[in-house]
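One-letter codes give the sequence; backbone shape is given numerically. An example follows:

. . .
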Amino acid sequence: MKIIFAAVIKIRNVNPYILVSAVRANTIKSGWRKPIPVLVRVNGKPARQWRINMMPVGNGDFYLYLHGDIRRASRTSVGDRVRIEINFDANYRNGPQHSMPTWFRQGLAANPQAKENWLDLSPSRKKEILRYFSRLKSPAAQGRNLSRALHVLSGAAGRFMGRTWAEGS
């Protein structure tokens, strides 16, 4: 089921989002309480709908977080009133969709605590990290991010990928 509505892009912590009411979420997928896989366009952009999981708020509403790529494609930012188009993504498959880079696999193999904490991460967190790693092209960027990832996955407190980490998660 497809829904189209207007909303203002808001921000939660550092994450731009659209609040999708329980009534609208129920129209997309009736009775769903966990993250809802959807295909999204903002102001008709991008041409090919963007895959996102709407995250439950806890009261039946959902957060539709808007990744930087979709905001760039639609030329929108926080505070803009936008036209949202949402379809349920029946072809969604759970878990990581990007392979683990060799440099990250080797780093985990050399750090047993980081590897153990990696294995304990939720599939969605692994998916997010592997998607981010897949975009890193330069050896310098890969090295910086490997160091940060192993630091927080080994249990040290720190920030990585816009989150505060403690005890490996």
Summary: Residues 59 and 152 are 32 Å apart (CA to CA). The mean pLDDT is 91.
